[in-house]
Amino acid sequence: MRAYLVVGALLLLIFGSIGGYLYNKFSALAAMDFSPPPVTIAVATAQGETWDSYLEAVGTVRAVRGVELTSETAGEITAIEFDSGDQVDAGKLLLVLNDEVEQAARLNEIASLELAEVLFKRDADLVTKNSISQTQYDRSKADLARARAQLAETEARIRNKRIHAPFAGTLGIRQVDLGDYISPGTVIATLQDQTQLEVDFTLPDRFAPRLRPGLPIQLSVNAFPERSFPAELVALDSAVDPGTRNLLLRARILDNEGLLPGMFAVLNLDMQDTLDVVSVPETAVTYSLQGNTVYVIEDIEDGGMTAVSRIVKVGETRDGRTAVLDNLAAGERVATAGQNKLYRGVRVLLDEDVAL
Q: How confident is the model at residue 33 (pLDDT cuts 50, 70, 90)?
């Protein structure tokens, strides 16, 4: 019996020691703080600013006078009077088509006209003497008018066999050669008056009430990345495109030296008014499917700080700062770096070395 008591006491001592050890261990673990450490982020203060109001658009440079030269009639090219890239004056003969048939018809119609004039003159003299009937005189008069009309028609066909420059300008690359047979509408070359250039572009219809002719524009093209060209808004379309809800506008380029029709252009339209905005560094805005987000720094009860995500509406970006149009006030602090480490309820520390 005594042996059992000794064994029981030993077991009680062993398990009691183990239990005490585990109790102390778990008590120490329970007293430890397992919350994640604060996240260090860079911050900036949202600033209230007044910005000049601009609208940006894209368009294509075009000549005020620019055409593709084509023929109204078919025929074989018998003469070419220009080279690619020539500067030509208005009315310059450029190309001649084979007109042998028309020239032969013209000679025949000239002879018919001469005969009709002789017969009409004779009948006009005879009718005054009552030597012929009024009907024969009327027929002679009609024959004369018909002969004149037929000759005029043939001469018009001959003129259509000759292509002239409709205005002064620069010819493009020649698309045809001597001896080619061309059909109506075949492009011979382009003709562009490069002294007057303009650009067409579109803007959403919501801006229509603020648009008016005379607004100044700065235009840039890829060919001259360090240069801008002054332009002026000259016309607004009379209707909005129902498919895109955009309004077509036209601007005249005031200084077009070096520009060519067809160039892609970026336009900066000065609306000549101002806009009050709250701006933040562009790195403060996070773009996602849920919307544009900024993380706003807020104080919490224990004296620490947390970052709270906030959906905002953003405007344009200028000089590294983005305009926030709603849901953010001037003076609030926003995260500008480290947003990928933030989550709901996170505590944050501010990196003063990079705060803006």
A: very low
Is 251 part of any domain?
A: yes
Q: What percent of the chain is modeled with pLDDT above 90?
A: 58
Do 284 and 177 reside in the same domain of the chain? no
How does pLDDT run across 297-329, given as a tens digit for each residue? 988 887 788 888 899 998 888 889 999 988 899
**pTM of the full predicted structure?**
0.64
Residue 356 lies in a domain: no
State the first-to-last Cα distance of the chain, in angstroms, to the nearest integer. 83
Average pLDDT, the chain: 87
Query: Mean pLDDT across the stretch 288-304?
Result: 84
Residues sharing a CB contact under 8 Å with residue 193, sequence separation 6 or more, in sequence order: 63, 64, 65, 66, 167, 168, 169, 170
Rounded to an integer, what is the distance from CA 350 to the centroid of its chain? Answer: 43
Q: Which domain holds residue 78?
A: 66-93+166-195
A 10 A CB-CB count for 207 gives 15
pLDDT digits (tens, 9 = 90+) for 135-181: 888 898 999 999 999 999 999 999 999 999 999 999 999 999 999 99
Contacts 24+ apart (CB under 8 A), 150-154: 150/109, 150/112, 150/113, 151/106, 151/109, 151/110, 151/112, 151/113, 154/102, 154/105, 154/106, 154/109
Residue 117's CATH number: 1.10.287
The answer to whether residues 336 and 251 belong to one domain is no
Burial of 111 (0-12, 13-18, 19+ CB in 10 A): exposed
- Segment 339-345 shows an average pLDDT of 83
Residue 287 φ/ψ, nearest 5 degrees: -100, 130
Distances, alpha carbon 51 to alpha carbons 271, 279, 318, in Å: 11, 10, 9
Three-class secondary structure assignment of 82-141:
CCCCCEECCCCEEEEECCHHHHHHHHHHHHHHHHHHHHHHHHHHHHHCCCCCHHHHHHHH
Four-point Cα dihedral 159, 163, 164, 169, nearest 10: 160
My answer on whether 213 and 250 are in the same domain is yes
Residue 49 vs residues 271, 285, 290, 314, 315: alpha-carbon distances, Å:
17, 17, 27, 14, 13
